[in-house]
Amino acid sequence: MPRTTAADAIDPTTLTLRLKHNSMTVFLFANPHTPITTLKSSLLTALTSINPATLPLSLTTLPTDPEDLVLGVPIDIYDLHKGWVKLLIPEPPKTKSKRPSGRGVFNETVHAAGLKDGNILAFRLRTERERERAKRGTDGEDMRMEDEGEEVDEKGEEKEEEEWNVVVPKYDDEASQT
Question: Which residues 6+ apart lie within 8 Å of 73 measured at CB?
């Protein structure tokens, strides 16, 4: 009977995703139809296997709920120094068919988010303000622009800027270490 290896268990459609926080990178395998919630659960499992209490390279306590992890995509995939934005899953296109469309479980997958093999994602913990919004059922939908260009929520509070804490190596860093 032939031996099977871990490489044999990987489906040809499996994607390799790189998730970054600080100077750490976690590699995860995901099927294109893997729900984003399952991806977050896998990430939390990987993080707890490294250190069950805190984020690696940090004193920040790990969450117990995978929904407390926020994923981000690079603003420019060719220049990671430009920063990151929260991963949003686009709405499916409106069709004139009689079949119901809209957001469903199938639409909240790795494929629906537009992720491809080798993509780099950032992750961070959800802020207290984001937790409150999730409880109210609004996740940034109540934002409007003020005259001066500051983004504020419906209560007039200034929107807090997302901090991703991703260290991207520079070529200068590599040259100075040799």
Answer: 84, 85, 87, 119, 121, 122
The arithmetic mean of pLDDT across residues 18-40, rounded, is 94
How far, rounded to the nearest angstrom, does the alpha carbon of residue 47 sit from its chain's CA centroid?
14
Residue type, 100: P
Sequence-separated (6 or more) residues with CB below 8 Å from residue 85: 72, 73, 75, 162
Question: Going along 22-113, which residue ranges are E strands?
Answer: 24-30, 69-74, 84-86
Q: What would the pLDDT profile of 114-146 be if each residue is shown by its tens digit?
A: 999 999 999 999 988 888 887 887 554 444 333
| Global confidence as pTM | 0.72
Assign 76 to helix, strand or coil. coil
pLDDT in tens, 61-91: 999 999 999 999 999 999 999 999 999 876 6
Q: Are strands 15-21 and 120-125 parallel, antiparallel or unpaired?
A: parallel
- Tell me the C-alpha distance between 173 and 2, whole Å: 46
Q: Residue 152 is encoded by which pair of tokens?
A: 């504020």
Residue 131, H or E segment: helix 128-136
What residue has token string 């490489």?
Answer: 7
